[in-house]
Design brief:
Blueprint lengths: L6 E2 L2 E7 L4 E2 L13 E3 L2 E3 L3 E2 L4 H5 L19 E5 L1 H9 L2 H6 L5 E4 L9 H17 L3 E6 L4 H13 L17 E6 L5 H7 E2 L4 H13 L3 E6 L8 H11 L8 E4 L7 H11 L3 H10 L3 H18 L5 E5 L6 H5 L6 E3 L1
Parallel strand pairs: 2-7, 4-8, 8-9, 9-10, 10-12, 12-13, 13-14, 14-15
Antiparallel strand pairs: 1-2, 3-4, 5-7, 6-11
């Protein structure tokens, strides 16, 4: 185990034994990102997004015996799962893995860490994807905030060329058709992104990577999360759809800010500290007022619906008893009711 002195992307790194990598029944199936299957090779990310809710969800894990040596705030450290690839293979070769291997399923990565935060993580992600492609018929959906996602695609291309096609157990010769790549882009402003997405590469570079993938025939999807409050929602949605070239994306997920734990206060502080006081005021203006928050969500949804090609939008919305009926009526327009 690491003693915390190793560094990755400027953060101390801790390693814990990888008991599992695949989650067979995650809630990401409800978000239509997968069929419930996810995989993750870490617990704390190399990036530090102010709005990220993972730190608040993972704090309970810090009570595990394997985490006893881990110190520091979740968002300030990197936690990797030692032996992740071996653990993934073990799960794929388990009775449950073999039973699901030939089913037409989608697996998503990653619910907790970025799959391409640096080249070491790129290589790890490629290894995991290779094992999934080799041992199953599943499709893999990968989401990142890093243009290094292109290197994952290139790595899998190089691996695919080396595979035998005559006696292959699974259709690995068409691996390109079984991986879908997405670059997270909640804003088009590099400066705004920098202040709320700590350590993440510029949005402009992510868009360039997305365009490269599209230009070279790879499958792509859009991820406009979080869509913060706007002065002009329709303009924001149009510009975003054009920037990600939505017509070339299979689907486009979008969501207003997911407020859990301290994510809201961290985001407000980051916006103010970065000089984006107007954006901070817009966000603060809808927080704490149920009616204004619902108006923010509905206006954002309708703007994305109006800007995107028909059938592309998958808008994630958490509802309560008072708002459910309206959102249920929007399912045909792309609302994903959670």
């Amino acid at each position: 185990m690491s003693d915390g002195r190793a560094m990755m992307n400027g953060k101390p790194v801790f390693s814990v034994p990888a008991k599992t990598v695949i989650n067979w029944e995650s809630g990401f199936g409800d978000k239509l990102l997968c069929d419930g299957l996810t995989f993750s090779t870490g617990t704390a990310c190399v990036f530090s997004c102010a709005f990220c809710y993972v730190p608040d969800m993972m704090r309970k894990l810090r009570s595990l015996a394997s985490m006893a040596h881990v110190t520091g705030q979740h968002e300030d450290i990197v936690i990797r799962r030692e032996g992740a690839v071996a653990a993934l293979i073990k799960q794929l070769e388990s009775p449950r893995g073999r039973a699901l291997a030939e089913k037409d399923l989608v697996i998503y990565a990653s619910p907790s860490v970025d799959v391409a935060g640096n080249m070491e993580l790129v290589r790890e992600t490629v290894e995991c994807c290779e094992e999934i492609l080799r041992r199953t018929y599943w499709t893999i959906r990968l989401l990142s905030k890093s243009p290094l996602l292109v290197e994952v695609a290139k790595g899998l291309e190089a691996w695919n060329i080396q595979q035998p096609t005559s006696n292959s157990q699974h259709p690995i010769e068409r691996a390109r058709e079984r991986v879908i790549y997405g670059l997270s882009t909640g804003t088009l402003d590099d400066g705004l992104a920098k202040c709320i997405e700590g350590g993440a590469p510029r949005v402009s570079k992510r868009l360039a990577a997305l365009h490269w993938l599209q230009n070279n025939g790879f499958r792509t999807f859009g991820m406009v999360c979080p869509s913060l409050p706007q002065e002009d929602y329709a303009r924001f949605a149009r510009e975003m759809a054009a920037a990600i070239r939505a017509e070339r994306c299979e689907h486009v997920w979008a969501e207003v800010m997911n407020v859990r734990g301290e994510s809201f206060t961290r985001t407000i502080a980051a916006l103010q500290g970065g000089g984006f006081r107007g954006q901070a005021e817009l966000l603060q203006g809808v927080m704490g007022d149920k009616a204004l928050w619902e108006e923010y969500a509905r206006t954002t949804f309708l703007a994305h619906f109006g800007a995107l090609p028909a059938g592309k939008l998958r808008f994630l919305q958490y509802v309560d008893a008072g708002s459910r009926e309206w959102w249920e009526w929007q399912r045909e327009r792309g609302a994903v009711v959670l």
